[in-house]
Amino acid sequence: MPIRMPMNLLKPTRLRHMLVRTVAVLAVAFTATSCTRLAAVDSNALWKIVDVRCVPSQQATGTPGQCTIVDLDKRYAILKDIVGRSQHLLIPTDRVTGIESPFVLTPNAPNYWDDAWVSRLYVEKSVKRTLPDNQLGLEINSPFRRTQNQLHIHIDCMQGKASDALARHAKDTPGEWRWDTLDGQRYRIMRVTSLTQANNPFRIVARDNKDAAAMAMQTILVTGAGPSAEKDGWLVVNSGLDVDNGSGSAEGLLDHACRVADGE
Question: Can you say how many angstroms the Cα of residue 11 is from the centroid of all Cα atoms in its chain?
C-alpha cells in the first residue's frame, strides 16, 4: 500500500510539483503500457485510446493510429493488446460500457460478435498460421470481472483443454442450452448456426437475463463448434455470478500464449 502524507503537511509549491510529476508518470504509462496495466490508474484507458488516438487518425489520415484497424462504417476498432502473443480486442467507436449496456440489444446496434469473429484473422496473423475455428475464441467479461469501462471483446486462441472439453457439444441440437463444467466452473453451452440476428450472443443470453443488472452478472465466450464454424456452427458459452459455482469471466478458457499454434 502507498504511504499517503496528510495534505495539510504539504506546502503548496511542493504539492504542485508532486501533482505535475504524477500527471507526467500517468502520461508515460498511458503511452507505454498495455490496457491491463493502464486499468490500475484509468478504467477509461481503452476508450481514450480509441476515441483520442485511433478514430481521429483514421478520419484525418486514413490510418488507424495506435489501433490495428478502425472501421468507421461498422463503428469498431481492433487493438492489439501487448498482453499475450496474439490477443486482440474489438472496441466500439461509440461509448458503450459493456455487456450490461442496453445499447447492445437495440435494433440498430452493430453486431460486435460477428465483427469480432471476422477479426480472428489478426490472431492468425500474429501466430503466422491458420487455426481451426474451434481453437479460436471471443470473450467478454462481467463488469465485476473487468478493469475497463468500455466494451471490449477479447479475441484469441482457446486453451487446448477447453477446446477438447467443448468438443462434446459439437453436435448439440442448435438453440438448446446444455450445462457443463469447464475449468472447475459451471457454464451453459448452446450451439448456434450463425452469430447474427436472433443468434447474436448478447440477445441469446438476454432472453434469460431481462435487465441490465442481470446482464451485468454474465460472461460470454464464443468459439467454433468444429474446425469450420460455417459448416459446424458456433458454441455460445455463458456463465453468471448468480449461478452456483458460476463465473463472471470466461477469459481463463482463452490462452494468451496461444500454445495451440505450436501444436501444444
Answer: 44
Q: What is the CATH number of the domain that holds 96?
A: 3.30.428.30
Plot region of 144 (φ>0 → left; ψ -120 to 50 → alpha; else → beta): alpha
DSSP state of 263: T
pLDDT tens per residue across span 68-113: 999 999 999 999 998 999 999 999 999 999 999 999 999 999 999 9
pLDDT by residue (tens digit) across 137-177?
999 999 999 999 999 999 999 999 999 999 999 999 999 99
Domain span at residue 172?
34-262
The residues, ordered by sequence, that sit 6+ positions from 99 with a Cβ below 8 Å of its Cβ are 140, 141, 142, 143, 151, 202, 215, 216, 218, 219, 220
Tell me, yes or no, whether 2 lies in a domain.
Answer: no
Count of the separate structural domains present in the chain = 1
Whether 26 is in a domain gets the answer no
Q: Say how far residue 56 (Cα) sits from the centre of its chain.
A: 23
C-alpha cell at 134: 474451434
Q: Dump the DSSP string for 153-198.
A: EEEEEEPHHHHHHHGGGTTPPTT-EEEEEETTEEEEEEEES-SSGG
Let me know if residue 22 belongs to a domain.
no
